[in-house]
Amino acid sequence: MNNTLLKGLDVLELLARSDRPVGLTHIGRELGLVKSNVHRLMQALVEKRFVLRDEETGTYTASIKLWELGSAVLAKLDLRRHAQQQMEALMARTGESVHLSVLDGAEVVYVHKVDSANPVRAYTQIGGRAPAHCVATGKVQLAFGATSILERMSTQLEPFTERTIVEPEAFLREMRKTREQGFALNRAEWRDNVWGIAAPVMDSRGSVIAALGISGPAERFRKSVLPDWTQAVVATAAHVSESLGGGNAPQSAGLSRLRFGPP
Which helix (H) or strand (E) segment is 13 a member of? Predict the structure, then answer.
């Protein structure tokens, strides 16, 4: 694999995620590169317009070209287009924010959302990331992954709240249960007092390619509404899957028998 290409991609990712312009020394320190190598990389990236250089300060920022390329990729994804109307309907039915995410390693990336009209709601950002083992859209995608990957991941779980599942056997049980019932719950496992429900989106080959879910304050996720909301999330994800030519996730557990949130 081309090491120069990999280093250049690392630089682009660093700049894209930085909240301020950075200099050669900072880039080299963060990526473990010598300054002369960083300088050559930056020259090439500036020349190709992926990076902008401030001549006064000698610092660098990612250019709008990265956004242009990302937008071009998203525009080609039928996923958001097929999901839009269904997501709006789900938000209207539940009153909670609706998210569409894809799995990227041990994280989810939010590719689309429909915000709740409630003044108090769960906050996410399109393009933002979250640890997959803590959020419902991540858990439901992980659950349909290879057992070997889940077993390896189960030994490396990071806690984010006191409710985060980090014990390996408990995590693997959660994955089995999620796969069997066809949806996942997040019980304030990433952010305190924020709950979520998600179901998988499948393509024409029956592979899970994304997840669709809702999230919001725990006090609104009550036993009286959770069965209906869960059914709505599962049905919405199924509709999106069908529009893509895909099928439904297995669902063997009766919704009315499941234990949900606050009374």
Answer: helix 3-17
Residue 144: Cβ-neighbour burial (10 angstroms; 0-12, 13-18, 19+): buried
| Residue 2: per-residue pLDDT | 67
Which pTM does this prediction carry? Answer: 0.70
Nearest-Å Rg of the Cα atoms of the chain is 21
Secondary structure (DSSP) of 32-88: T--HHHHHHHHHHHHHTTSEEEETTTTEEEE-HHHHHHHHHHHHH-HHHHHHHHHHH
pLDDT score for 248: 61
Q: What pLDDT does 242 receive? A: 87
- DSSP H helices, 111-167, are 136-143, 147-153
Fold designation for 3-67: Arc Repressor Mutant, subunit A (1.10.10)
| Spatial distance between the Cα atoms of 50 and 12, rounded to a whole number of angstroms | 8
Q: Which tokens sit at 109?
A: 């990336």
CA-wise closest residue to 134 among 69, 183, 94, 191: 191
Three-state DSSP at 208 gives strand
- Answer whether 111's CB lies under 8 Å from 126's CB: yes
**Is the pLDDT score of 180 beyond 50?**
yes
- Domain residue spans in the chain? 3-67, 77-257
77-257: CATH class: alpha beta
